[in-house]
Amino acid sequence: MEQPAETVAFDEVELRRWRADDIDTLNRVATESLAHLRPWMPWAAHHDRDAIAAFLARSDEEWASGQAYNYAITSGGEVIGSCGLMRRIGLGGLEIGYWLHPGWTGRGLATMTAAALLQQGFALTGTDRVEIHHDAANLASEGVPRRLGFTEVERVPVPEGAEAPGEVGVNVIWRVHSPAAASRPSSRPGHGLRPGHG
Ligand SMILES: CC(C)(COP(=O)(O)OP(=O)(O)OC[C@H]1O[C@@H](n2cnc3c(N)ncnc32)[C@H](O)[C@@H]1OP(=O)(O)O)[C@@H](O)C(=O)NCCC(=O)NCCS
User: Fold this and answer.
1) Which pLDDT score, from 0 to 100, does residue 65 have?
2) What class does CATH assign to 7-182?
3) CA–CA separation, 24 vs 140, rounded Å?
4) Which stretches of the chain score pLDDT less than 50?
5) I need a labelling partner for 94 at 20 to 30 A (CA). Which of 26, 114, 152, 153 fits?
6) Domain ranges of the chain
């Protein structure tokens, strides 16, 4: 099966595929980040070492099946967060997810991460769109697709309501279409993606 690169260098970040032996590193980075993640990431309410081990095992399985490609975000050799490309928005679609350790926010590193994943996603055959979803109250997350020229396409109330304490329970969907799809006669016009992270 066609897969993205296991390591991706982009501007000031390098993404590398998570491995089972990253457990101590990821456990430390997630533990240090919990207060900052809890408002937005439901899993942060149940974080412990076993949950991290399960995530790493699942990441291996999902990489093999093509269901998701999860990476450590590193900068200057240090692990600073986690991100992934997920196949959960239907045929031809990939969704990007990300979080950073709070000591590394405000420098454009999440935006660089998403730009790197966007390139990897569109390099996979059959990808016609990439999306970023976030809760409407999560303005820091919203900044990432906005800076990369994604288009906001929909605001969808989540049937179950908010899943984490900072959320209002409305999912904002940002989308960018494949440049290749845009050049086909029947498809939509091109997107506003700028290379890099302007
Ligand atoms: C969502 C999250 C990753 C965003 O982090 P972030 O630091 O705001 O995003 P970036 O790393 O792209 O940094 C952007 C900031 O750096 C600034 N910046 C500096 N240099 C930059 C550069 N070269 N390129 C882009 N932005 C740059 C931007 O102006 C922006 O500043 P602002 O926050 O004052 O507007 C972070 O808030 C987080 O981990 N949140 C908790 C988990 C979460 O919500 N995940 C998403 C769930 S949907």
Assistant:
1) 97
2) alpha beta
3) 27
4) 186-198
5) 26
6) 7-182
Distance 141 CA to ligand 1 centre (A): 7
Tell me the pTM. Answer: 0.93
Q: CB pairs under 8 A, 24+ apart, for 158-166?
A: 162/135, 163/42, 164/38, 164/39, 164/40, 164/41, 164/42, 164/44, 164/45, 164/135, 165/38, 165/39, 166/38, 166/39, 166/40, 166/135, 166/137, 166/138
For atom 31 of ligand 1, the residue with the nearest CA is 106
Q: Give residue 180's pLDDT.
A: 73
pLDDT at 179: 81
Ligand 1: which residues within 6 Å by Cβ? 36-37, 40-41, 98-100, 105-111, 134, 138, 140-141, 143-144, 147, 197
In DSSP notation, 4-59 reads --SEEEETTEEEEE--GGGHHHHHHHHHHHHHHHTTT-GGGGG--HHHHHHHHHHH
> In testing the pocket of ligand 1, which one of 107, 117, 131, 158 has its CB within 8 Å of the most ligand atoms?
107
Note the residue count of the chain.
198
The 10s digit of each residue's pLDDT in 18-56 is 999 999 999 999 999 999 999 999 999 999 999 999 999
